[in-house]
Structures are given as structure tokens and as C-alpha cells.
Amino acid sequence: MSLDQIELSRRVFLKQAATVTGGLAVAFYLPPGMTATDPKAPAPAAEFEPNAWVRILPDGTVKLVVHKHDSGTGTQTALAACVAEELDVNPMTVQVITPENPFFDTYIHPVWKVFSTGGSTSVSLEYDRLRMAGATARALLMTAAAKQWKVSPDSCTTEEGRVVHVASKRHLAYGELVSVAAHLPAPAKVTLKDPAQFKYIGKLRHKRDAAAKVCGRFKYSIDVVLPQMLVAVIQRAPVIGATVLSVDSNAALQVPGVRKVIRVPGRPDVLGGNVEGVAVLADNYWAAHQGRDQLQVQWSESALSGFDSDQLAGAQAAAIEDKQAQRVTAMAAGDVGAQWATAAKVLEADYRMPYKVQNPLEPICITAQVKDNAITYWGGVQVPSSALEAAQAVCKISQDHVTINELVSGGSFGAREAKYWLFEVAYLAQQAKVPVKLMNSREDEMRALFMHPATLHRAKGALDAQGRLSALQLQAVSPASPEQWEPGYFERPDKMDYSTTEAITAWDFAYRPANLDLVWVKHESNVPSGWYRSVSFIPNVFAVESFMDEMAHAAGQDPLAFRLAHMQDRPRHVAVLKSAAERAGWGQPLPPGTALGIATHQGYTSFIAVVAQVSKKDGVTTVDKLTCVVDCGLAVSPGGVEEQLYGGLMWGLGHALFDRLDIKQGRVVQSNFHDYRVTRMSDMPAVDILVVDGEPGKPGGVGELGSPSVAPAIANALFNLTGVRQRSTPLTLG
Amino acid sequence: MIEFTVNGERRELAETSPSMPLLWVLREHLKLTGTKFGCGMGLCGACTVHLDGVAVRSCQLPVAAVAGHAITTIEGLSPTEQHPLQLAWVAEDVPQCGYCQSGQIMSAAALLNTGAAVTDDSIRNAMSGNLCRCGTYGRINKAIKRAANAPKEA
């Protein structure tokens, strides 16, 4: 066994010790029936590993472990910086690695209790314990140095990878302290840095790996090559639930380079499982792709063969009236029903958004090998728990025999939180007995059918004689987003689906009329839905912020003032709203043919307001500018926060103007970027982003914050420009 | 037999189907994986390379069509990986996931090759065939301007 292998096997058995140190201390446990003196027992490594995130080698190498997937959002840089700041090393120059054992207990998502990355939670939820991890390691290193120097640890300090005793002008590099530090007990108390002393947190303007990414050297899932590897593409059921009636693979097998055709059974028994398919395995992608074109597959009809997305809004409207429909109250106050008759004015409006698809630029790609009752994956695995589930369900392989060689993904936006592809590759690797690289084409991405669901929102509001919003009702018709994720969630006492009621629950919803009734109406079309950047914030904020605008106009009030008048005890929210309005010139004279629209929301413990400026010149209407002010508490990586917001605004513009996936007779109509338009550089308006310091001690999420307010801001601006209210996306610029 | 040069090196392909797109020849035969696959229809620009200095989409180009021509990929843009665009991309911290950036940089390099004035309009015209889903368009604009104003590579 090589040293690397010993190291790996040791880590496979790495387990968290149940200590009072908040999960920071780790201990090693041995395989059952093995004692520490067993010659086969994994040897302790000659390194200092005080917790699950820090490793220091005698040669001075510092490795920081980041246990979150990076799909381009900069999590590796931001999370490494949290550890590095307290450890006092440079997060841009030390090594950053992913865990060999992604199933180490400490790495579990603190809220979801699975091994996963998402929900804009990585920085906000890991910030405290990663700083603690770095600070603990630093304290131990200072204690180790103090022992050697026979001085008090309190008289020592650190600077950039070494412990310093200023009084005697002595210093020791971290690497020189490894053997002593490794045997010290966990410190009883660890002091975190005063944020005023931060060198990296709150100051980062660059991300790791940029140099490799601009030279074509950076390796993605699609670049994985292994000996004997075959490339697979799958012709999947064109309609959910359709099954293979017959396959003629003769022509496919004639294509030079094509090696095998394998039927992939569907897994309707698994929430989020793959549909049935026929895979073509070849020496390279081009051969596999051509082979798939030659496949003759007859598919059965299915229950969804008659599904037409154009008909969905009607069915969703019927669900509102359906006494049997599952209705879950997200927020309630007073009695809205009692207000309609007595109100000075009552307004009702329906808002619709279509199916949308994530389209990361790197299509889904994953390589797997099944060998000796173990499975190894290579690629961007955002949800290790799903890779484990696939190994267990498909190959009957246990957790101890699942290895993930984790890579940065070429975008995810929710696509890589789907699991169908992990099930497919596990099956193919098991059948083919060689490494299999499963690749999606763009058409496969468009038709993966784990898309953002189409929604209908019915809003009703009442104004009293003073023009105040006296009652607000919202009925949000949508499928349950985590159906594939949290089986049994509906058995919870509150029956709440927190992923579908984003922005309309007590903590996110800004407005406080006396009578309030915000309801989610569960309506399943049986078209599976998937995760999508900003999830249900998108339709919920579109409806709420469009309707608040309509109510403001009905009340004859300024939409900004109307919003502010109905917010209570939300100083940070009020501040971003006022700031964005001021920056965008709200209330100031505008050039002729120009109009502004405003929208705002809160999410991920962050606040955002967006002002859209639109204009009509020579008969052409354009979105000219998006002004965005955000309070995300502490911006750990300000450069990263700004780019996440820019990306979010770009996505919001897409929701407003382009995103729309149609399904006819159960089949997705669009196929590639020519008929599913996404935002190009030429579509981008001027963008002004300001990030304000709201709460310096606490980072909020930003990855999904940027998009939801954009579509209503644009719709509101277009109303101000044209007098015509648009209530379904994509909006028409005219 | 198809002959062409890639990054200054002469290549001969004996057994490759002439209809195979250049993208897959580069990636799977020549192991130049910096050029990426995004759509297969020339719509996203991730596969952008230079054909005699002009930006082309390699996913749409049968390899037979490049016989006798010179191809430059992201790997061949600069022998030192210090092309002004590459330096500017790092300085502006452009890449997020980075997957589209090889294609973005090759399109930007083709723009600079024309010697045309670098303005918001010329950048938009040159770059709107390259999709980025993360949202790096603003920084790409800044990086191209930075590179255009940088001293020429030694």
C-alpha cells in the first residue's frame, strides 16, 4: 500500500468525535475488529490536522479543505478565506482541496442534514465554524511554539504562516510545529480575530484559479479522461413515464467508434430518478453522438403524452377554486374576507410565469467507474448524498466504498442538484465494467425535464379610504418543489414547503397590512420540477412586487412611498429601497420617453432593491439600466458578491424578457439556444450595483439574491412608460 | 489525410472522418481541451478558435474545411500564458465558473487582431456570440479595454 493509499483509507474511516468543541475536533476510528496495534491499522499521518478543514505538513504546506461544491460562485475562495483569515495564511496562495471523504459527518449541511451545496447558504452558514477552525489551529500552533520557547502562549502571535515571539524576536514556521501541535489537546477557549484586523475577509477582490481558467488549463468534468473509458450519450424517454417498446441498435453499432448500446432502466421509484433511456457508448463523444442519431427506438405513450404547458394556467386557476386542493397558509393576519365588501377599492390580478430551464454552459457530464464493489466518480458533484444514493440504489455499494473526485462545475444554477445523471452513470459504469463518461448535449439539457415549474399567482388587495392597503391575499399555485428531495415533508405539522413559499413567509415578506392571507396552493402537473437559481422567489416576488405596484397606482400613490408605508420594523430593508431609488434618480425629472420601475425583496438574510429604467425611442423599447442596492450583512468576498449580483440581475433580465420553455404533447418544444434565448452581452443594460454594510458580523447569501426583483421592476417600469400592465413573462417590449 | 497547423505545429490526421467537427478533433484527438463544448450549433461560442486569425466556432466546422489553414486555440494564444487579454482577465477577475472564458478570450483576441477601435459598440458586436451564464459580461468589457490599452506582449 502506498502512502497515498494509507492516507486515503485512513480518511475513509475518519469520524467526528462527539466533543464539546462544536464539531471542530476530530478523532479517528478504526474499522470494526481492528486494534490500533494491528499492523494493517491505518498509520497516523505525519501532519497536523486539528479539524476537518486544516492540514499542515512538516514541509510547511498548508492545505485548507473546502467541503462545498464550487460551480463558479467562488465558494472555494470565500470559504478558504474564512479559515485562512483566522489561521493567518494567505487564502490565495495556500492549497485548497476538496475532502477525500465527502461523507464525513462534520461536512453535513447544518440545516438540510444531507451532504449538499445550495440555497445560497455556503458562506452564511459556514462562516462562524470555519473561522473557528482556523482560529483553533492557530491557537494550537502558538501553544506548540510557546512550549518550545518556554514562554506563555499569550506572548506569542502569528504572521503569515509562522508563530512569532516578538519580545525575543524568535519565530517558527507552522511546518516546524507540526509534530508538537499534533499531540496537543484541543484548546479550551479560542478567541476569534477582531474584524477590524481582517486582512482577507471583507477585502477579497480576486478568486483562486483565474489564471488557469484563462489559459484553458483548468479541468472540468468534460475534460476527464481515463484508460479504457467510454463516452456515453443517452436517448431519453421523450415524455416522462414513456417506456421503450423496441430498440434497433444495428445502425448505431455500425458507426465507427461505437462499442455498446445499453438500455438504462428508468427509476420512477426514486424521487428525482432518471427516466428510461437507451445509451450509446463509444470511444469518443462524436461517435457516441452520431450513434445516437442512428438509434431506432419506439417509445410507449405515457400519462403525460397529452400534457400541454399552454393548458396549465387553466388547470392552475381551477385548483384555486378546487375545495380538494391542498392549501397551505404561509402567512395570515386578521380576516381578509371581511375587508372586500367594506373597502374603498378592491383589485384582483393573475400573474403567470412559464417553465424555465437552467442551462449551465457546461452540459451535465460525469465519469464513473465501478470496480471491486466500489464506485469512483470524477466530476462536479454538487450533492454528494445523491452520488451516494445512486451507488446504493443502483450498485448496492455502501458509503465506505464511494469515492468522489470533485471538480469545479461549469455552472449549475440548480441543474447539478438533479440526480438523474448520477443514477444513469452508476448504472452504465456497472454494466460496461469500464469507466464511463456520461455527457449531455445542449438538447439534452433543454429536455432534461427537471425544470423550473410554471406558476400562477392570484392576488387580491383592498384599499381603505385613506389609500392604505387594508387587506392582501395571494394564492400561489405551484407544485411542491422539494418533492424529489424531502419525501415526507408534507407530513410536517405545518405542512410547509419552504422552497415554494420563499418571499411570502413571515421572515421574508416585507409588508404588514392588518389583514393578510398568503397561501400556497399545491398543484402537481406531474411534470417533475427541479431546482433553479432563486427557486420560488422568482414567481413569488414577481407577483407580490407587481401587485404592490398596481395597488400603489390604484391608491394614486408613489410606488416607492406606498411600499415604505407598509413596511414595519425593517430598517435594513427600508434603507436599501431608499438608497436604490435615490441612486436611480427616483422622483427626479426623466428624459422624454423614459420611465422607472422599482421592486424589492428579502432573502437568504440579505436585502435587495432594484430600479429598472426603460425607454422608447424611434418605436423601440429597451431596458437601459438596472440599479441595484444590496445589504448582505458582511460581504466576505466583496468582488464575489458584486459578480453574483451582476449574474443575478442578468438572470432576472432573462426571466423578464426571454426565459420560456414550452411543452406540447408531453414533449419539450425548444432544443437549443436558437429557440430558447438566454441573455447575451448585447442584451445587457447599464448596471449599477452598490453593496452596503448592514450587519458587519454576519454574512447573508447572495448567489440567488439578484434575480427575483428584476422582472417586476421591469414590468413596473413598462407600465409607467406605456400605461399597459403586463402580468405574465416573458414581457413584451413592443 | 487532412493537414493543418494547430498553435504553430503541423498536424496530420489520417483516420479522422472529414466531417468530424474541428472541436472534437481538438479535444479528443489532439487533447487540447481548453476549447469547450456548449451547444454544438455555433450558438454559444464556447468552442471559439482562430482560423487564420479570425474567430470561428469549431463545433460547426468540419475538420476537412481547415485543411491547409492555421488554427489557434486558447492553449496557443500566448507561449507564456501572458497575452494581454489573459493578464487583463485575471486583473479584472473575470472568470466565475470559467467554462466559457476560453471562447470569450479567443473572440476578444480576434477583435484586437482586427486593429479596430475598442469601444463599447465594437466589444458588444464582437462578443455577443459568446454566452456566459454566470454573468461576466461587465467584467469582460472592462478586461478587453484594459488589454487594448496595455503595452504589447514582449
TrEMBL record, chain A:
**Domain of life of the organism encoding this protein:** Bacteria
Q: Which residues form the Aldehyde oxidase/xanthine dehydrogenase a/b hammerhead domain?
A: 215-303
Which GO MF terms are attached to this record?
oxidoreductase activity
Pfam families assigned: MoCoBD_1, MoCoBD_2
Q: InterPro entries annotated for this entry?
A: Ald_Oxase/Xan_DH_a/b (IPR000674), AldOxase/xan_DH_MoCoBD1 (IPR008274), AldOxase/xan_DH_MoCoBD2 (IPR046867), AldOxase/xan_DH_Mopterin-bd_sf (IPR037165), N-heterocyclic_Hydroxylase (IPR052516), OxRdtase_Mopterin-bd_su_IorB (IPR012368), TAT_signal (IPR006311)
* PROSITE patterns (alphabetical): TAT
Q: What is this protein called?
A: Xanthine dehydrogenase family protein molybdopterin-binding subunit
What organism, scientifically named, is this protein from? Answer: Pseudomonas arsenicoxydans
Automatic annotation (TrEMBL), chain B:
Q: Which domain of life is it from?
A: Bacteria
- Domain 2Fe-2S ferredoxin-type span(s) in chain numbering: 1-77
UniProt keyword terms in alphabetical order: 2Fe-2S, Iron, Iron-sulfur, Metal-binding, Oxidoreductase
Query: Which terms does the record give in the GO molecular function aspect?
Result: 2 iron, 2 sulfur cluster binding; metal ion binding; oxidoreductase activity
Which Pfam family, giving just one, matches this sequence?
Fer2_2
CDD domains cross-referenced by the UniProt entry = fer2
The name on file for this protein is (2Fe-2S)-binding protein
Q: Which organism is it from?
A: Pseudomonas arsenicoxydans
